[in-house]
Amino acid sequence: MKITLLMFVMLLSATTAYAEPSGNTQRQEEVAVRGRHVMPFDLEKTLHIFEKTPQGGLQQVIAKDAGDSEQINLIRRHLAQLAKRFTAGDFAGPRRIHGDTMPGVQALANAGGKVRFVYQELANGAEIEYVAEDSALIDAIHQYFDAQLNDHARHAVDSKTKQCLHDTHQPQSSMPSQQGQHDAESTDSQE
Questions:
Q1: Is residue 13 pLDDT above 80, yes or no?
Q2: ∠167-170-171 over CA atoms, to 5°?
Q3: How many CB atoms within 10 Å of residue 110?
């Protein structure tokens, strides 16, 4: 357990530079400030993980401290709300944080039920799996994830780093229903 925790801390330290893509650091700071008004959890105590998949992608938010039940509960509530809103075509939260011209967001908002947003709790947070069959929508998901990674910079990592941090996930689209998996639930906050 100590070795796993030590590896996790070392990886988080190393990924700060890796996760911060070249880009506009002023914009990244503006996104972080706007995000604090939309996302209920503390960006400094959590990590966004984005993994592109052949059918769309997987968005996870985890608490950096697996014992931080406050952050874990805030993450779970927020992502459950997002899945519900996204299913209804409501991307107001991401638009408030990233802007109306965020890559992929318009296509996802107009998908009309052609993208599934599957919420599931994780031991240290939660995830939303984005599943589509249409290649244009899969591309929109990938563009959306790229924009998230660029804008969240030090608060987000991609699938390469994610595999090191949380390599136990199997996408819901290839698994039978599990406890903790939910259809989009009704709740209040957005991103």
A1: no
A2: 125
A3: 12
Q: 155 near 46, Cβ under 8 Å?
A: yes
74 burial level (CB within 10 Å; 0-12, 13-18, 19+): buried
- Residue 50: phi and psi, rounded to 5, are -120, 125
Evaluate if residue 140 carries a pLDDT over 80: yes
Distance of CA 160 to the CA centre of its chain: 15
**Cα 49 from Cα 58, distance rounded (Å):** 8
Q: State yes or no: pLDDT of 16 exceeds 80.
A: no
Amino acid at site 123: A
Q: Please give the pLDDT value at position 155.
A: 59
Report strand pairing: 56-63 vs 181-182: unpaired
Q: Give dist(CA 57, CA 60) in Å, integer.
A: 10
3-state secondary structure of 47: strand
The burial of 69, by beta-carbon neighbours within 10 Å (0-12 exposed, 13-18 middle, 19 or more buried), is given as exposed
